[in-house]
Amino acid sequence: MSREELVAENYYSKDFDWEQLREEVENDPSLQFHLLPCSSEKIDNLNNHAEQDSEAWDEFHARHSTGKFFKERRYLLKEFPELAACKDYSKVLEVGCGNGSTALAILRGRESMILYACDCSNEALVRAKEIIGAANSISDKHRFHPFQNDFSTTAFPSWLACNICSGANSSYEINGLNPSCSDETECCIGGVDFVTLIFTLSALPLDRMPKALAHCFAVLKPGGLLLFRDYGLYDMTMLRFQPEQKMGYREYLRSDGTRSYFFCLDTVRNLTSAAGFTEIELEYCCVKSINRRNGKIMKRVWVHGKFQKPSCS
Fold it and tell me: What sections of the protein cross the membrane (predicted)?
């Protein structure tokens, strides 16, 4: 994840037309390799690399341990006002919390919010704990419950579905706390109210995405929301990749060993629908930003989505 993703603080979804950008890219001979299929050998290499993903992200967060890379995602509550307007003591599961840039924004947006945050990288969790721990509000620290989990291969812990409330695994604690129950809440059988996937799904192998979304669906309460933001097709960062970094259809491997996939709306729609979600919102966010060092305009494309678990599930 590059620094540009972390510095965005304003949300403008219509700075330019995505269809016009698509035409420009698809008619540019120098970019044609992005449109071509990949060899089976490259795809196999990318799939084999999947077992090293956690290690790559550990190294990434270790390199950026000084805190200079951190930028709180203050735009998040503008895009997802449901997080600030939710009922008291609502529960959020942030999947792929990274260094805590999303977690801090969520905690500050709603004083009673309870936030569970997971990541496949232990190093990321260390950074997130440090950043939340350094926050001015003691309340933020007490409502933040991090844990390690790779949701592309492993279901979320049973306590997230509030099995504690029904008597199962009642001794489970995080940081000395029972994370699913509190004196302020009623019995919380049913799971979490929100799952956030913010620049997380794109870091997974494509073939693991269906299982990952199924895990998100399972842990949500009926009527709960999946809040999604990720790389969109023909984003500037996609077009910067070199041919040798293209490892699959819209899949790329960065020089640091981390991966990135670039979504079109249909792919997101198909994946979430197959998992059981109902689409509430889905669109491209087309944002122009200026590189302060060289004055160049950068065309960023992200996919914004909101999806609901049906109340009858």
Answer: none
